[in-house]
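Quick one: structure for this chain?
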Amino acid sequence: MDDKKNQEKEKQKKEKQDRIDHELDKKGDESTEKDETTDKSHGDILKEQIMQGCETYDRSGSSIFLSSITAGLEIGFSFLMILALFSFLEAKLAEDVIFKLISLVYPLGFILVILGQSILFTEQTALLTLPVLNKKRSIYSLFKIWGIVIFGNLIGGMLIAFTLIWLGPRLDIFDEHAIAAIGEHVVDFPLMTVLVSGILAGWLMGLLSWLLTSAKDTVSQIIMIFLITGMMAFTGLHHSIIGNIEIFAGMLVSSKISFTDYVYVESMAILGNAIGGAVFVALLKYRAFVFNVKMP
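Got it. Here's what it folds into:
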């Protein structure tokens, strides 16, 4: 009797999934028939996001890892501009004002990474979760690819941190005081605060990925990246990848930042970013579509 009930449940699940896939395919067919001036629907964007996520899964591990290192390196240009701006304004403005103005240069690295198609963990979190929700990929494959991307992003960030710590003082752009000030500012919060802050940052980055899929031109994409990442910087939300560079570099030059601080804060930021993107974007956007799918 139990076996029969289980079989019936599995049959219903399969029928439901087939119906969801049918609706997504229909949305995809409809979107190809629309002209470029027509706004994309929720289903259109979801279909494209799932397809983009699957394309990343289909890449080789070496390709993903190299692209992730590249993203970690490229986002370091945001850190370069942050340090340059901080040093330039330090004697002219109050420190709290400078941290707000940093939001004007913070988006640069994100623009380079995202438009350059390098793989950034926070921008890919929701994107890689959607194929799992749609049963196109397994939860194991999700955690595996997350691990590769995070590791690559962190390695790239550490490499650019070493480079900038060496280069900045020699070019007289900034000194170790600026590096320490930025790092200490990022870690100066309780871990629970970092976690919740990371969730909001991951949520915003997941939304950014969603919005970029709906954008029709590069200018619109740049504006979206600038607004979303600028908001993160202005409010001080914790982004695990650029935060990795800020804290790691600060740890190398400041006695106030220990390796334990680096590990704890970075871990909370990564966890928060993952939750924000996977739950508050991927899951909610996917379920909103699924709940509207009617069985025949």
